[in-house]
């Protein structure tokens, strides 16, 4: 196992864990598709700076099937997956949605074995199951039943679709890194250019359908604009580049369960800095995530 791949995966999880705390203070009554559109500026801007810092000039162009796969990975991981996630929450509540969608590391493990030819050892399998179980225990309380049975079924299917979208995007990203000459920064740069028009097109469509009012974004305070774009730079630019680096150093079946521990870090940060409390069940979840990540790492 490559130690640097483990460190990069943990650093990615830290980036992803800080962002929800920024959202909590700056989202107001905005929906996530609106936040996604705003933070796209931070994503693109930070990636331009990273490419300039890399000093290798304009990244090589992606053409044909490689571009289509990058488009698919971006839409699945950062656009459709997140929209499906929010829809599943609306149907069945946060607790159930998080429980079902947190199974995406299992999807990555299976696909990594079948498509990428990665060897799934017993520690990887046991550690992945431990992380998934721990994430389920970390969710906040139990949600009451929402709506009628058909709504619950739709919510369950939406949550499964979310896990599938997230689980598909990571093996595709690793395959692109292995099959092209792109660096992790180059790949994430092209992802940002795909992400930007995609989220704004989705926002415009939702405005046309009556889900959003354009003035809501314009009315957002300047400080909140900066904070949300900072979150985009942290989660999508830095976190995405670190994830790609980790996938260059270690198998996707190892990297994913470790990066999926970001809810654990978010919980610990909320306890330390926001004064939140945790139940005994959540502390058991924390222990399972820590043990699972440790088992995978060795």
TrEMBL record:
Segments crossing the lipid bilayer: 6-23, 35-55, 67-86, 93-114, 120-138, 158-177, 189-205, 226-248, 254-274
GO cellular component: membrane
Domain EamA: 4-137, 154-297
Source superkingdom: Bacteria
InterPro entries xrefs: EamA_dom, EmrE-like
Keywords: Membrane, Transmembrane, Transmembrane helix
Position of the signal peptide: none
Protein name as annotated: DMT family transporter
Organism: Aminithiophilus ramosus
Lineage, top ranks: Bacteria, Thermotogati, Synergistota, Synergistia, Synergistales
